[in-house]
Specification:
Chain B: This is Zn-dependent protease. Chain B: It holds the Pfam family PmbA_TldD_3rd. Chain B: One of its GO terms (biological process) is proteolysis. Chain B: One of its GO terms (molecular function) is metallopeptidase activity. The structure holds two protein chains of two kinds. By secondary structure, chain A is of the alpha+beta class. Helices cover 19% and strands 42% of the residues of chain A. Chain A contains nine helices and 23 strands. In chain A, strands 1, 2, 3, 4, 5, 6 and 7 form a seven-stranded mixed sheet that branches. Chain A has a six-stranded mixed sheet with strand order 12-11-10-15-22-21. A five-stranded mixed β-barrel of chain A has the order 9-16-17-19-23. The longest helix of chain A is centred in the N-terminal third of the chain and has 18 residues. Classes of the chains: A alpha+beta, B alpha+beta.
Chain lengths: 461, 442
């Protein structure tokens, strides 16, 4: 995307300002977003993002600039502006580029640049709408979204790395709104992957619509949630957001290097119940949070974060490695050329255990079965987190009693990891977007069903 | 000033192909700085332009955007928008407004010269981090920054509209991590001003330090219902999480809980909510909306009664009304509606009235993006703050949840304070409200 000689001259210019290291991240990103309301196309939007991010490193200091003007003089002007206060005699010289091609683990068959597939996408969402409304006549609205993206990136570094990657993303989401007089409730479901529009051939639009409708109907009949400290069984799949928030963010060197994580000095220590093992794996074929290479040009890998309760690794990007001494894990990610890379999660999940969901529910005298989780957030410095239950049930004497609404779970990462007492066999993954210092990146969360013995449930009963 | 000739040509080509169109040209320039351990850790500069084209052909709307601006990219932009329009449902209510006019915001007011040099900005970032980190029991200041952004939006249409808005925003923020043995607490705040010279790091340092240290001693309170006051930031965050209830677009789509409430009581009788885009003290000031309609003060809730929803020209046409000048659209998004600068009218309660007896002052709400349901009004959020009595803080509180239904809360506002304050981003202005009987879990 950027001529090699231009990249060379720009990086030479960066080193001439005395930088220790510099890299260029060139991005061309096509996207298409289709939105339907009931069986009608609400809008179709497509676009092209194009820009170049320039990073200069002086010691542990990062200078970052970006522009969508790819002329050499515009790129050099960004460097001049960045280096104005740090300019010094050159300390290193650039290495000649050696193009590296990494294996493409995630091929796309129907890429956005080759086929818009709009008519098929509209048909898919219409089928999901019909299925949702057929589920129950109280389903008064459906909203369908189909997002397809194609992100081409090229990376040049002063250490001689030159590489490229193409990432194809596709995600389909359906939301159903159930109405009964003045009461309304929503349900939603989505699927996605690191692949092209062929995603649809692996999916059943009827199932997607029915599942969204089923959740909406459950929530329409939900009662206020009891509150207080109690055991909670968290369902598989997106329930893994608990680990993502409670632990994953605290293992990123973005927090660890600043000592802004409660786990920054706990490597090798038991930080979780012995039944907990967890990984962050960027290599899973065509899975939403996977990558071939990270946004610093390193081939991705599988990283064992926790093994039998013991902290075994952090997630380490280039600057994190420089600041902490830990080996890079291929975790340097960013939303786009507008962000400097930072250590981020990929596909993060708790590995399967030996328990059954039914046994977990049966073991609660008074508690909540959180079948589906919504989003949440965490404060890395204290480990305090919160996340929302989007489909939950009150359990008494080991039996599910009734659905509950507006429940939030709050605790701290260190506390909840120690409170996990049972881990199921039914591992499932789910797509999400994770927002942090380097923007919003696609990630997968996941877990089997698990039981937390004691957590604060915020309810309105 | 952007050279608009290539864009005028683009709009002419759209017309030649039988479409009406409008084009957003956003130009953003920014400088941001972060410090760590007394050194500059990150410096970022940017200069980007994004084009957002909306075409309407045969009553069908097509959208496309591009960050490339050469002639081929502009042709591709038009082609994509026209292809997208072919698949959209006919939408006769969405039209390019017939508003041939030239509107230009006042640079002297919104984009005054800032005389703070880049070196002085770096010194400010270092001072903020170093001073706060040097305070007793502050372990570090992991999140901090000083930034300046200049944003320019130009809106052109085939109907002859040429509107331009340019503004400068300077801000600084800091989140400090306090530690006392194994107990940690984090608190943060920010400041916004037109020029860098107007920023005051010392004020920010004092506030963040006090909040972080106070929180160290925080503990839960027993689960029960309390009277609750949200501080300005928390109250602004909570309000904005439910403001789709004011959206005529959501009403048109059937997903607005207030869609049938016009003329009815939706809040306590002394509650008044207005959108004031013409208040130049705020950063939500707008001369025109995303369709080029002039913005004006709009009473939304008067004495507790819902008077109007927020409209663009399409929703207004749908409901047989006039637009209220609340069209919202970015270069990468479709036409919607949104408030510019919400303002709650102060009431009559003095500070003593507001703070009599026992209540919880909540200063931080966690999970506003996930623990709220804008459709039903239900929310359940992590919270921290203070247990107070007669205006005095008795105990710092953390590790609790607050849960209620926002629309029901609005109907039981116990007291409205007599002084309005801006949130730190200066986008919402409101007095303190006291709510009775709110469920707290600790």
């Amino acid at each position: 995307m950027l001529p090699k000689h231009t990249a060379q001259s720009v990086l030479d210019h960066a080193l001439a300002q005395g930088a220790d290291f510099a890299d260029l991240f060139i991005e061309r990103h096509q996207s298409q977003n289709l939105r339907t309301l009931l069986d009608q196309v609400e809008n179709v939007q497509s676009g092209l993002d194009f820009g170049i991010g320039i990073r200069l490193v002086y010691g542990n200091k990062v200078l970052y600039g970006y522009t969508n003007d790819d002329r050499p003089e515009a790129l050099n002007a960004v460097i001049d502006q960045l280096a104005a206060k740090d300019r010094r005699d050159p300390v290193t010289t650039a290495t000649a580029f050696d193009f590296r091609e990494f294996p493409n683990r995630h091929p796309a068959r129907i890429a956005l640049s080759q086929d818009l597939s709009l008519a098929e996408k509209v048909d898919f969402l219409r089928r999901a709408d019909r299925a949702a409304r057929a589920h129950n006549e109280a389903i008064g609205r459906t909203i369908g979204n189909c997002l397809q993206r194609e992100q081409d990136v090229e990376i040049f570094t002063t250490e001689g790395l030159h590489t490229r990657d193409s990432r194809h993303y596709c995600r389909i989401a359906v939301t159903a709104v159930a109405m009964d007089g003045s009461r309304q409730a929503t349900g939603s479901d989505n699927v996605g992957g690191l692949l092209g529009w062929e995603l649809h051939s692996q999916q059943d639009p009827d199932r997607l619509g029915e599942e969204a409708a089923r959740q909406a109907m459950v929530n329409l009949g939900a009662k206020a949630c009891p509150s207080g400290h109690m055991p909670v069984v968290i369902g598989n799949g997106f329930g893994g957001v608990i680990f993502h928030e409670a632990c994953g963010h605290l293992l990123e060197t973005t927090s660890v290097a600043r000592k802004a994580s409660v786990f920054h000095d706990k490597l090798g220590e038991m930080i979780a119940s012995p039944v907990v093992s967890a990984v962050d794996d960027g290599t899973l074929d065509n899975v939403w949070g996977s990558i071939n290479i990270d946004d610093e040009g390193m081939e991705t890998r599988k990283t064992q974060l926790i093994k039998d309760g013991q902290l075994t690794s952090f997630l380490v990007d280039r600057m994190g490695a420089q600041q902490t001494g830990y080996e890079r894990t291929g975790s340097g990610r960013r939303e786009s050329y507008r962000f400097a890379p930072a250590s981020r999660m990929r596909n993060t999940f708790i590995e399967p255990g030996n328990d059954d969901l039914d046994d977990m529910v049966a073991s609660m005298d008074r508690g909540i079965y959180a079948a589906r989780m919504g989003g949440g957030s965490v404060q890395p410095g204290t480990g305090e987190f919160n996340f929302a239950v989007t489909e939950g049930y009150y359990v008494e004497n080991g039996k599910v009693q009734y659905p509950v609404k507006a429940a939030t779970l709050i605790s701290t990462g260190p506390a909840v990891l120690r409170e996990i007492s049972m881990v199921g066999r039914d591992l499932a993954l789910a797509c999400g977007m994770c927002g942090s210092v380097s923007g919003a990146v696609p990630v997968t969360v996941g877990q089997p069903a698990l039981k937390v013995d004691n957590i604060l449930v915020g309810g309105n009963a | 000033m952007t050279d608009t000739r290539p864009y005028d040509t683009l709009l002419e080509k759209a017309r030649d192909r039988g479409a009406e169109a409008d084009l957003i040209i956003d130009h953003q320039q920014s400088l941001s700085l972060k410090a760590r351990d007394g050194e500059l850790e990150e410096q970022a500069v940017s200069d980007t332009r994004t084009l957002g084209l909306r075409v309407i052909k045969d009553e069908r709307v097509g959208l496309a955007y591009s960050e490339a601006r050469d002639e081929a990219a502009l042709d591709q932009l038009l082609n994509q928008a026209l292809v997208n329009a072919e698949f959209s449902k006919p939408d006769p209510e969405q039209q390019i407004p017939d508003n041939a006019q030239t509107l230009t915001s006042d640079d002297a007011l919104l984009c005054p010269e800032s005389h703070l040099t880049p070196e002085a900005r770096i010194d400010l970032a270092l001072y903020l981090e170093r001073t706060l980190a040097g305070r007793d029991r502050i372990r570090n200041v992991p999140y901090n920054g000083v930034s300046e952004r200049i944003g320019e939006r130009q809106l052109l249409s085939t109907r002859g509209l040429n509107a331009r808005h340019r503004s400068r925003t300077n801000s600084l923020f800091a989140y400090a991590l306090a530690a006392d043995g194994d107990i940690t607490a984090m608190a943060g705040h920010g400041q916004t001003a037109r020029t860098g010279e107007a920023l005051n790091a010392d004020d920010l340092i004092e506030r963040v330090y006090a909040d972080a240290i106070d929180l160290l001693a925080g503990k839960p309170v027993p689960s029960r219902h309390y009277d609750v006051i949200f501080d300005t930031e928390a109250q602004a965050g909570l309000l904005s999480a439910f403001m789709s209830a004011l959206s005529a677009k959501a009403a048109k789509d059937g997903v607005n809980p207030w869609r049938d409430q016009l003329g009815q009581a939706v809040a306590s009788a002394d509650f008044n909510l207005t959108d004031e885009p013409d208040n130049t003290d705020g950063f939500g000031y707008r001369l025109f909306d995303a369709e080029g309609t002039a913005c004006r003060t709009t009473p939304l809730i008067v004495n507790g009664e819902l008077r109007t929803l927020l409209h663009n020209s399409a929703t207004a046409r749908h409901f047989g009304l006039e637009t209220t000048g609340h069209a919202q659209r970015g270069p990468k998004s479709s036409l919607g509606v949104g408030a510019h600068q919400l303002t709650v009218t102060p009431g009559r309660a003095t500070s003593a009235d507001l703070t009599s007896g026992e209540y919880l002052l909540l200063t931080d709400l966690d999970g506003l993006h996930s623990g709220t349901n804008a459709l039903t009004g239900d929310f359940s959020l992590g919270a921290s703050g203070y247990l107070c009595r007669d205006g005095k803080r008795i105990q710092a509180v953390r590790g609790i949840t607050v849960a209620a239904n926002f629309f029901e809360l609005l109907k039981r506002i116990a007291v409205i304070g007599d002084t309005a304050q801006w949130n730190w981003r200066r986008s919402v202005r409101m007095p303190t409200l006291r709510f009775s009987d709110v469920a707290i879990s600790g």
